[in-house]
Write a structure and sequence with these properties.
Chain A: InterPro entries: ATPase_dyneun-rel_AAA, CbbQ/NirQ/NorQ/GpvN, P-loop_NTPase. The complex is a heterodimer of chains A (about 350) and B (about 750). Chain A folds into two domains: about 210 residues, P-loop containing nucleotide triphosphate hydrolases (Rossmann fold); about 130 residues. Helices cover about 45% and strands about 15% of the residues of chain A. In chain A, the strands form four sheets. Chain A has a five-stranded parallel beta sheet with strand order 4-7-10-3-11. In chain A, helix 3 crosses helix 5, helix 12 packs across helix 14 and helix 14 packs antiparallel against helix 15. The longest helix of chain A has 19 residues. Chain B is of the alpha/beta class. Chain B has three domains: about 260 residues, no CATH class; about 80 residues, no CATH class; about 250 residues, no CATH class. Chain B is built from 34 helices and ten strands. In chain B, strands 1-6-2-5 form a four-stranded parallel beta sheet, with helices on both faces. In chain B, strand 9 and strand 10 form a beta hairpin. In chain B, helix 8 packs across helix 10 and helix 20 runs parallel beside helix 22. The radius of gyration of chain B is 37 Å and the shape is elongated. Classes of the chains: A alpha/beta (about 350), B alpha/beta (about 750). Chains A and B meet through helix 3, helix 4, strand 11 and helix 16 of A and helix 14, helix 15, helix 22 and helix 24 of B.
């Protein structure tokens, strides 16, 4: 096994991609590694004609993945939008891996991302020595993806300043990147497209200009529909984490995962699972990803400081940390929830006590 | 004879039926529908009868139980009837008549009611004997068509049917194909043959035979696809007659009523509600559309709502819809693909905007109309019956009724009038009645002819006053924006004894209470609710629901109030103190130990929170003192610290005002309190005293004149109150002997 901490999707799932490619018979868009149908299968999982099992990467609504893949077959770019922790980057990585066989063309958007990071930069030593030549040009992932006809990923698009974002307009509408210094342009090969991700919870983001917005089809990735779906996600991810981190604790009982997921869902949706009581909604996102980290955190606590078995007490601090982001408003929300919901549940007494102690 | 198996309200089916009939040129048309309504088919084709409309079959003696048979322009049945009327050939309904259908249901209900007391075995057997004449077979829960859809790889039956039959352009032999498919399904699932289905099909065959006997040779039969095979392969006539013998009957009447697309999307008489009438209308009008016209409509709607939508948007969404259809290997984009494309391209992934399209375009807001000379609606009939039963005369003059709610007839009258009031049919006006007690009501009644219009209008909400009022309240409740509005609705609904609606409104209040961050809003609702719980009993209403509502609201208030007292200006503080006084009264009124404990805890938090508004802190301390939670040194400490020199005079004054809120008399009667205030005033040095004088004056100005005079006298006499000395050497025996006399003197006997 490789010593790399985290492998790229196309390496980790190389076998699946290969099997899919082998049995793929339909018509492929130019420069795509798989047919659109197979890309959807790769994301959603399923068994192939020869009995090979493809594991699900995205657990949720199949339609969303279909819209995403169909978008990439047209000349519009794809914008994955949603709360933090709803698998946006995860989906974009796997889409790029399945379509182009390469998920490494990536630009990380930050408040400091400059135009050079998106279009092209210069190797100043050469520029000074030789003047503007093609050799002095530093290609960005975007430029390389255009040349190779691949999918490029732009993470956190809305964090990039508005002026820099708009450099994407030409790339997306003309499918070309002019280099006026050299009096040339790079024209995109077939198969080029952009997958951007953005989250809708952050403050201080730069809304896309409507000119740019028009060039994206938006897919909002929702929080999981059902409690079973969410538990499935948490369980899978916690298991893979345990393997990597070699934690001494026992794997968590489904019971504990169910309780965490229930608390998160109830507070997120503002209503109890049985639909009888409405609740106030805290300011945090309470995403599935956070549920995963609360369980991991609890496992570490139980493994290194406890008796190795995950208990309510190991989780309480993590839960409160995730829920109470605003010390005044969220505390009221949490208190109300504890008193009106957790307290009255028969088999939740330990959770109630553990949380009460910490408040 | 030709049997045309259709889907109710399917635009493709409608088009096929129309085309088929034009080629076939039948001499009679038979349509699945209630034969009771044959008489009113003559209206079809008149200019004023515009779909969507429905045939309403109701029992004149019991309008609550009725059946609607809705028709849209794109309903195959409507097109068939219309064809017959336009070509002047006879048209008849052929389903099991509603008079039998309603009677069978009535029997079922009665059997259920009757057997409630019997043992469970009896219940099952007797229900079976009513519902099925023969052995019960496995009844699939799902619509059988969905099994075919599943086999074809679709996730939902309606979608599959739409792809296969409704959106198809080449329609040759389609009715045979449908017939064969259904034949196959019927052999696999014989289960759908429960008794009612058998009766319906037997009756349909009976009508067909009747037509044959009348020497019609070219008969067109339009029925739901499922029934088609049963009508083609006729069993022996004798068996059918056997089955149909001795069916129970009730009296029914029929009329046309206007319908809406919105209602069409609910389940109705055929048991076949459709989700997207607006889309079907589009399909009916533009069968050739590849999505472009639909998307233009969507874009038009968005522009109307002030959202910028360019032609490029439309192009992109049509393209995406077609790409999706290709990905799913379908010949053309259906509503699902178009919706997903709209969602992604035009709505930027927002579900909210898609909801707008759903309401305005997919369901649509079209309302049908009916000619003026059509018979009376059931709500009117129900009102007239109630008027007769309760002996409330319909007069053009004012007439007054004083109702004593302890009498049953008067109580019913009051309930009836309250319900009409809810429906805004303002026949009666409730006036204030003098005297004590809550069991009397004074009503002034005057009938105006315009009220009939209101009744027709409200008729869409239900066929009886009770039903309509409930539905109306529930709708109002859904539309209400503030907690206060909903609380008012609850106060309306309680005297009208609409328990379902009351429960809904209660639940809604609870939901809104949970969602609101504004405790001030909650606080205002409490007194009204407490009043209902305390005094609602005259009306024999169950106060339990409201009590539980109150308990959750009081819990919320007690958690949220301490935070709400922080950082507010003087005016808000004054009004909040008034509200708190109201809550205090309500809690006293309810006399519920749990509420009192919660309230006391809440008061304690306010009293000790240095950031809370001074007036409220004063108020809280005072209440705690009254509850005897704050006493002695602790009380002095908090009193002195709140009024000490470092505290801004304005704050100190506000604190004292809250403390002494409306309680001049108590200052006179309670020596502890008197002493506390007196001691405090005495310790003030001259400078401070002068400074505080205006504030104190304001506080004392609120007391009544006699109180102020007596306080003045008390100060003047110099006594620091009359100290009651407790003499420990009481002869208990002798004291007890005096008690009866004292009681008599005080009038306690």
């Amino acid at each position: 096994m490789s010593n790399v901490l985290r492998q790229h999707a196309e390496e980790l799932f190389a076998q699946e991609l290969e099997e899919l490619q082998k049995q793929d018979s339909g018509r492929r868009p130019a420069n795509w590694k798989l047919t659109p149908q197979s890309v959807v299968t790769y994301l959603m999982g399923g068994s192939l004609a020869n009995g090979f099992e493809v594991s699900p990467k995205y657990i949720g609504n199949r339609k969303l993945m279909e819209i995403a893949v169909a978008t990439l077959t047209t000349d519009r770019a794809l914008l994955l939008y949603g709360l933090p922790g709803t698998a946006k980057s995860w989906v974009s990585e796997h889409l790029a891996a399945a379509i182009s066989g390469d998920s490494t063309m990536i630009v990380q958007g930050t408040a400091g991302t400059a135009e050079e990071a998106i279009r092209y930069g210069w190797n100043y030593a050469r520029l000074l020595a030789e003047g503007p030549t093609e050799k002095a040009l530093v290609e960005t992932p975007v430029m390389r993806a255009m040349k190779d006809g691949k999918v490029v990923r732009i993470e956190e698009l809305t964090r990039i300043g508005a002026d820099v974002q708009d450099t994407l307009i030409t790339i997306l509408s003309e499918k070309a990147l002019p280099v006026p210094e050299l009096n040339m342009e790079v024209q995109a090969e077939k198969g080029f497209n952009v997958i951007a991700t953005a989250n809708n919870r952050d403050k201080g983001v730069n809304e896309l200009s409507s000119a740019l917005k028009r060039r994206f089809n938006t897919v909002i990735l929702p929080v999981p529909d059902s409690i079973e779906e969410e538990m499935d996600i948490v369980k899978r991810r916690v298991e893979s984490y345990e393997k990597v981190m070699e934690l001494p604790a026992e794997p968590p009982a489904l019971q504990e995962i169910r309780r965490i997921v229930t608390i998160f869902r109830e507070l997120r949706n503002g209503v109890t699972v049985d639909g009888k009581t409405k609740l106030k909604i805290p300011s945090g996102t309470l995403s599935t990803a956070e549920a995963i980290s609360v369980v991991n955190n609890g496992l570490a606590m139980a493994g290194y400081f406890g008796d190795g078995v995950l208990k309510a007490g190991d989780l309480a601090a993590g839960i409160i940390g995730a829920v109470v982001k605003d010390p005044v408003q969220d505390k009221i929300v949490w208190q109300e929830y504890l008193e009106t919901v957790v307290k009255v549940r028969e088999d939740w007494k330990d959770v109630y006590r553990a949380c009460r102690e910490l408040l | 004879m030709e049997v045309l198996g259709i889907r109710h309200h399917g635009p493709g089916s409608a088009r096929n039926v129309r085309k088929f009939l034009e080629e076939m040129k039948p001499d009679i048309v038979l349509v699945e529908g209630p034969p009771d309504a044959d008489g009113i088919l003559q209206w079809v084709g008149k200019e004023e009868l515009r779909p969507p409309v429905a045939i309403l079959v109701y029992q004149p003696d019991d309008p609550k139980h009725s059946v609607f048979y809705p028709f849209a322009e794109f309903s195959a049945e409507w097109q068939a009837i219309l064809y017959a009327r336009q070509n002047n050939i006879p048209v008849r309904f052929m389903d099991l008549p509603a008079m039998h259908m309603l009677a069978i249901e009535k029997q079922k209900r009665e059997a259920l009611n009757k057997t409630e007391e019997q043992s469970e075995d009896d219940v099952i057997s007797s229900i079976q004997s009513v519902t099925s004449g023969k052995d019960e077979v496995f009844v699939p829960k799902k619509d059988p068509i969905s099994y075919m859809a599943e086999a074809a790889g679709f996730d939902d039956g309606e979608h599959w049917w739409e792809m296969m039959f409704e959106q198809r352009r080449n329609n040759e032999g389609i009715f045979e194909a449908v017939g064969e498919a259904m034949q196959e399904l019927r052999t696999v699932f014989p289960g759908k043959k429960d008794r009612k289905e058998q009766l319906r099909e037997a009756y349909m065959r009976k009508v067909i035979r009747q037509a044959e006997r009348e020497m019609f040779t070219n008969i067109a039969v339009i029925c739901g696809a499922w029934h088609a095979p049963a009508l083609k392969n006729m069993p022996k006539q004798k068996d059918d007659n056997e089955l149909l013998k001795g069916l129970p009957k009730v009296k029914t009447e029929c009329t046309w009523v206007p319908w809406t697309y919105n209602r069409l999307s609910f389940e109705s008489g055929y048991g076949a509600g459709i989700h997207s009438p607006g889309w079907y209308e589009h399909l009916w009008n533009y069968p050739e559309d590849d999505g472009t016209r639909w998307m233009s409509k969507v874009a038009g709607l968005f522009r109307q709502k002030q959202m910028d939508t360019s032609v490029a948007h439309v192009i992109e969404s049509v393209r995406l819809a077609n790409a999706l259809a290709a990905l799913r290997q379908m010949p053309r984009a259906g509503l699902q693909e178009l919706n997903e494309a709209t969602w992604s391209v035009l709505c930027n992934g927002e579900d909210m905007l898609l909801q707008l399209i759903r309401n305005e375009l997919i369901v649509g807001n079209r309302i049908g109309s009916i000619p003026d000379d059509i018979p009376k609606p059931p709500l009117q009939v129900d009102i007239e019956r109630a008027q007769k039963r309760l002996r409330l005369a319909v007069t053009a003059d004012f007439k007054e009724y004083t109702l004593d709610l302890r009498k049953e007839n008067d109580l019913e009258r009051s309930i009836f009038l309250h319900r009409l009031q809810i429906l805004d049919i303002d026949w009666g006006q409730k006036n204030h009645v003098g005297g004590k007690g809550t069991f009397k009501e004074l009503w002034r009644l005057q009938w105006r002819p315009e009220l009939s219009v209101d009744i027709v209008e409200k008729g869409t909400w239900g066929n009886t006053v009770e039903e309509a009022a409930s539905a109306w309240i529930i709708q109002e409740c859904k539309d209400a924006q503030t907690l206060h509005q909903v609380a008012v609705l609850l106060q309306q609904v309680i005297p009208a004894e609409l328990s379902d609606a009351a429960e809904f409104v209660g639940q809604h209040i609870n939901d809104m209470a949970a969602a609101t961050n504004d405790v001030l809003e909650l606080v205002k609702v409490i007194p009204g609710l407490a009043g209902i719980v305390r005094y609602g009993n005259v009306r024999q209403t169950d106060a339990g629901m409201i009590l539980s509502l109150l308990s959750s609201m009081i819990a919320r208030i007690c958690i949220g109030l301490p935070a709400a007292c922080v950082g507010i200006d003087e005016d808000t503080a004054i009004s909040l103190t008034d509200d708190c006084t109201q809550i205090e009264h309500s809690i006293q009124l309810l006399k519920h130990q749990m509420f009192i404990v919660q309230w006391q805890q809440c008061l304690q938090q306010i009293a000790y929170n240095q950031h809370a508004a001074s007036m409220l802190r004063g108020f809280a301390v005072r209440q705690l003192m009254d509850y005897r939670i704050l006493q002695g040194d602790e009380l002095y400490n908090i009193f002195y610290s709140s009024l000490s020199k470092a505290v801004a005079p304005a704050d100190a004054g506000a604190w004292l005002e809250g403390f002494l809120k409306g309680s001049g008399t108590i200052l006179l009667l309670d020596d502890n309190l008197w002493q506390t205030v007196n001691n405090w005033v005495k310790q003030l040095d001259e400078g401070n005293f002068t400074q505080l004088l205006p504030l104190l004056r304001r506080t004392f100005a609120e007391f009544s004149q006699s109180e102020r005079r007596r306080i003045g006298e008390k100060v003047k006499s110099g006594t620091v109150g009359t100290t009651v000395k407790v003499n420990k050497d009481i002869d208990v025996e002798r004291a007890r002997m005096a008690i009866p006399v004292v009681m008599q003197l005080l009038g306690y006997n």
